[in-house]
Amino acid sequence: MKHNQKLKLLLRAEIFIYAISVVYGFYHSWMMEDHQALGMCVVACLTPWIVPLIFHLAHFKRVVEIDICNIAFVYFASLIGSVFHGYSVFGFDKVVHFCSGLLLTTCSILLFMIIKKTAHIQNKEDYHLFLIFINAMNLAIAVCWEFYEYAMLIFFNNDCINHYTQGVHDSITDMLCAFVGGILITLLVMRSYRKKTPGFITSLCEKFYRLNIEKHS
Question: Cβ(154)–Cβ(146) under 8 Å?
Fold first, then answer.
C-alpha cells in the first residue's frame, strides 16, 4: 500500500510540474512571439490525454505506473521537444525515439496479453512468437511515425523528417533508436523469464493483466 501511495504522489508531482511548464510555455511563447511554439503548447495540453483516452475507450482500469511513464514521456517528447525547441539540441530527438522504443515495446507486451488472454508464456512456441511480436509491433509503429513525418513534408512542406538536410539518415536513425529501445526491453523480459523473477516491466504488465484481463477471462 505504501508503495502505491508513493507512486500516486510521484504522479501528482509530475502532473504539477507538467502544468507549470505548460503555463510557462504559453507565457514564454507569447512574449517571444513564437507562434509555432504557441501552437505546440496547445498540442502539449492534449498529448497527455491520449493514453487515458485509449484506456477509457477500451474500458480498461488505469495503472499508475503507466500513467507515470506516459506523463514523463510526453513531457519531453511534446512539451520540451516542441515548445522549448528541445529537438534543436543534438541527440535529443534520438533519445526520445529510444524511449519510444522502450514504451511501445512494453505496450506491445500488453497487447500480446490482451490477444492471448494470458500473462504467462506456457510453451516455447508462444515464447518465440511473443518475442517476434513485441519487436515487430515496435518497429511497425516506428515506421508509421516516419510515414506521418513524410506526409507532413509532402502535403504541408513541413520538413519534420529533415529530408532536405539529412536525407534518409534521420528516418533510419530514428527507427534504429526505437529498435534498440525495443531490444533492451526484450532482453529485460527474457532475463525475467529465465530467472523466473519479476522485473519492473513484467510486474507492470502482470498488474495490468490482473486488473483488466484476468477478471474478464
Answer: no
